[in-house]
Specification:
The chain has about 270 residues and is mainly alpha-helical. The chain is about 75% helix and about 0% strand.
Length: about 270
């Protein structure tokens, strides 16, 4: 998209230059009024050519030739690039909608609940609750502020603080969903969400490969803590982006997501 915009700017700049040259040239050389000069230049470069005005001098004819050879292609370039940008923007909107549909499936089926499980391992959970208790009054600026704060937040997961067995059981139950999501080609459009799914799937594998999670050496608990810590910030970042998307596009879905916010200790789907 950026390359298309840059190319369009170049075509527009050249087109404006050619139009300016044509207007000034015909006004001076052919003695046309500014309006007639604009009219003749425009019908020339757009290939309309009504024929009601035409150059009377040799220099004017040479200028017309220059406008035809350079201006027509430039004008078509402006139209083609503008059209391509509009189509590309529409395609991006459709892709974004599809990606967020997949994200919606993930968070409704397991993502929100997974946040509840993993946040139980967080020693700094109280601070996150202050920053992520999203309300209906949140603006785009507040979502951006929360996102910046998350990037500098110190995630401190304590593996003994949560319930590893419950987390393993939950991830095992969601194996089919994880596989379906990882196989979805639309996720190639969003690398960060794909990375989250890979991290979650790896955490699941690590937990399932251990028979008894209560009798592990501290070195292994530290390893599992690292796997949890890998998932945690990725999960929060995608959740926050998804909440922002719902807030701006689907208020009724945002209402439920806000009421079931895992960072709100009093969360409840019941409307009060």
């Amino acid at each position: 998209m950026d390359s298309l915009k840059f190319r369009l700017r170049i075509f527009v700049a050249v087109f404006v230059g050619i139009m300016t040259l044509g207007i000034i040239g015909f006004a001076v050389i052919e003695g046309l009024s500014p309006l007639d000069a604009l009219y003749f230049t425009l019908v020339t470069v757009t290939t309309v050519g009504y024929g009601d005005i035409h150059p009377a001098t040799h220099v004017g004819k040479l200028l017309a030739i220059l406008l035809i050879t350079g201006g027509v292609g430039t004008f078509l370039g402006v139209v083609a690039n503008a059209t391509e940008i509009l189509l590309s923007r529409r395609e991006n909107q459709i892709r974004t909608q599809k990606v967020h549909m997949v994200m919606g499936l993930f968070f409704s089926e397991m993502g929100t609940k997974l946040l509840s499980h993993i946040s139980a391992f967080d020693s700094n959970l109280d601070q996150l609750r202050k920053d992520l208790t999203i309300t209906n009054a949140w603006t785009e600026a507040e979502f951006s502020t929360a996102n910046r704060q998350l990037k500098s937040f110190h995630y401190d997961t304590e593996v003994h603080k949560g319930d590893l067995e419950e987390l393993r059981r939950f991830l095992e139950e969601k194996t089919t969903l994880l596989l379906r999501l990882l196989e979805n080609p639309i996720l190639l459009e969003k690398e960060s969400f794909t990375e989250l799914l890979r991290a979650v799937f790896h955490l699941r594998e690590e937990l399932l490969h251990r028979e008894d999670l209560t009798l592990l050496p501290e070195s292994d608990y530290a390893h599992l803590g690292g796997d949890i810590k890998r998932v945690y910030p990725l999960l929060i970042a995608e959740w926050l982006e998804y909440m922002k998307y719902l807030k701006g596009n689907y208020p009724y879905l945002f209402s439920l997501a806000m009421r079931t916010n895992p960072f709100n200790p009093e969360h409840s789907a019941v409307v009060r």
